[in-house]
Amino acid sequence: MTDPLRAARRLALVLPLLLLVPQTLPAQEAERPESLQAESETPWIYENSDVPRDEEWLFGELDNGLRYGVRENGVPPGQVSIRVRIDAGSLYENDDELGYAHLLEHLLFRESKYLGPAEAIPTWQRLGATFGSDTNAETSPTHTVYKLDIPDVDAAKLDESMKLLSGMVRAPVLSDGNVRTEVPIVLAEKRERGGVGERVSEQTLQTLFAGQRLAERITIGTEDSLQGASGASVKAFYDRWYRPENTVISVVGDLDPILFAATLEKYFADWKVSGTTAPAPDFGDPVAPSGADPANPVGEVAVIVEPSLPRAFTYGYFRPWRQVDDTIVYNEGRLRESLALQLINRRLEARARGGGSYLYAQVSEDKISRSTHATLVQFAPLTEDWQAALTDVRAVIGDAIANPPTQEEMNRELAEMEVAFANMVEQRSVLAGSNYADDLVNAVDIREAIAAPETFLMVFNSMKAKATPQTVLAETRKLFGGEVIRATYITPDAEEADEAALKTALLERVDADANARLAAQTVSFEDQPAIGEPGEIIAREPHGIGAVERVEFANGVTALLMANDHEPGRVAVKVRFGAGLRAFAPEDAPYIGLGQAALIQSGLGELGQEELDRISTGRKMGFDFTIEEGTFTFGAQTRRQDLADQLYLFAAKLGMPRWDPNPVARAKAAGRLAYQSYEASPGGVLNRDLEYYIYDQNPIFETSTPDELAATSVEGFRKVWEPILGQGPVEVLIFGDFDGEEAVQTLANTFGALPDRKPIPAEVLARTLEIAPAGETVVRHHKGEANQAAAVIAWPAGGGMGEIRKSRQLAILTEVFSNRLLDAMREKAGASYAPSVRLDWPSDVESGGSITGFAQLQPQDVPVFFAEADRIARELTETPPSADELARATEPLRNYYERISSGNYFYLLELEGSTQDPRRMRALRGLITDYSQTTPEAMLSLAGEYFGGTSGWRMAVIPEGQKLATSSTRARAQSGR
């Protein structure tokens, strides 16, 4: 069974005259097609399964063998999600076809029966679908899936979309010319994915899956194979696998499922192909080398030396993958496996928190690409003493294999599992249609059935009733057995290990460590101290937006509440306080990142990290922490019955913080290990350096070096963060399915009970964030591949609520810019796979925003990127965009905001900060209009304001030892190709 995923549901939130709230479209009637299976039939996906059928799905099979599933779903309203799955991925390629499955995915978007060359992206944009999110595809080792989420749909739009998809799948134009055009784009994607990461991935695959097809077939393929592709050779792959009997289509959305089935049949029922179905290749089984010890069958191992990567150790137990009957008994066994793994991972994490020899360790189980059923153990040694870390990890696992868990341990993990499954049932009506569509194709991929949330809960309860320490012990022992054990160790130091040392370490006997078990401990909210005397409510009134209520306490805390039952089982909570990044002086910079990693883990009151875990067992609670430009935030998704305790945790972190040293030490170690990996690729260098340089070398944006981290202390951490937690007004937002009166009383007992807040110092509020002025290109170097580079260009944009409506129009201009850059750098030049332009407009501060263009490319193409970005910016100031360009920009924006405006969280995000800044309420008026309606003249004016007479700030990341190419250098390079 595949898990149904969580998503948002449409709401009937009434905000009169403020927004165009999308409405459910009237149902379309269609004649039931003969291909739909009758209720008395066993649907094709439930064959050989006793899993209860999810009655909301309708299944069918065409005479040509194509299978499908359809269902109605109004989340979000007006959207239909279509998935077309082809049962062929990289494992289906012959040795001379490496990368063809993925190349073919590209070619279907290049040109097809109803879409001319390069027309797919703009056509879907005109239909309101955003390229890359609403319109996309994926190729895996075992399948290729084409994905389309159509917004604002009706029967005509559905028909047109299904027609276009059928043309892509049934009749792509696989010409030599299209192959020559698309191969450079695929090679650009390969280059952007490649380098150190690709090398490590290849060596890992070759080691862990030795002797199997998966070891030699990376999805992206090889440069030689791709360069050798032709229309004929790709068509041969297409003809072999793109057949109706290898195709499954799922359609889920806000129309009649009978209409889905009828439309699908209209465009796919007459799909005829010649010849017989090719048998799927044998993926192979994991096999131990000759002479391996059957009791400890250590096989292939590899030491992968990469000076720019931190240490990472992986070893696994590999068993053959076999097709199973997806029965209730089978799924009970899978849940017992999950229970066994959760028990071990809890112990491993506790050891890491307590100052163990590894930064993290985790055990997982997976059925990988229908090639192996594996149990994988992964950990990161803190030092070069990887043997000690391996011994520690194996000792923890050894105890789980030797001795049954305690009932107390089991109860803790079972409670965690139960709340997850119960919450899925509670939220059944708000699960997104796109996730249902994905669920079906994923179930087909793993050759299992699909089930409703109620079924998952039923199977879990059945497993729980039968689970004993002995049954979990038996499951654990099965997990850590197999035909062969394989391992890889990534290290920056070639002298640290060799293959013989790895094998020796894995063959050594390790004593089980009974001390790994966590002592039984009872922690409850009832035993926690009060934050203070309940606060006095000095104001409680409508906020002026729909059903939103504003509450103010005597200590200055304000709250916005919107209680409704439109999203059952969901409550979104957000707490805003303080000055955000402005709060930090330059000398405090190293403590910013440490705070993001360690502030919450440092505990509160008498609760350390272990106690926080225990107190939230069996609850739906969270504790996200974010540092924004002008504020700090806590956030969580919870539920009605856990809301009071969630608010207590948030308020207690402000009112009685704890300062445990171990989370800070662990955060320092993580920062030190991560720092060396930044220079491995252009993207890593940008992650490390871009904000620092784009903000004119402002120290608070500098990534701390290992020496700077070493100079920090627990005392310094507290000195920086303790006053921050007590400064500035607090705003609490609670939106969703809760009782308003109970929430107000809880707020009085928690946030209302906090001490009066200290004011934010005037010098802090006066700090601004400024984009660096244009000048010489900032050049940084990486130690990755010689053919990898990245380029960034940026213009100052602004920030704050004063011109928020202008920022929405500027978002349209940014989309036009991005579409032109994509056309120039990808479609025409084939120089970059995914160049883009984005607008950053911070709303909590009045400055610091930017319009930023980005691309990964070859070093010689960096000047081309800058020249093209300059050209596009200049042309936008001279000639307004065409009506078609504006439609391609505004339709996806309009549909995106219409879709998200149907959920509680949208209103929370739009209204946050409005207790302090009423402009945020006013900004809601006309939001969708601002994003969806404009004029060429308005775009021309904005372009002149932001791009006119100024060159963008520039940054290039090129390989170490190279100089930044000039335009003439690039021209010579082109002529020599």
UniProtKB/TrEMBL annotation:
This is Insulinase family protein. Residues 79-193 form the Peptidase M16 N-terminal domain. The keyword Translocase does not apply. Belongs to the peptidase M16 family. Residues 232-415, 730-890 form the Peptidase M16 C-terminal domain. InterPro entries: Metalloenz_LuxS/M16, Pept_M16_N, Peptidase_M16, Peptidase_M16_C. Residues 1-27 form the signal peptide. SUPFAM superfamilies: LuxS/MPP-like metallohydrolase. It comes from Qipengyuania aurantiaca. It holds the Pfam family Peptidase_M16. Keywords: Hydrolase, Metalloprotease, Protease, Signal, Zinc.
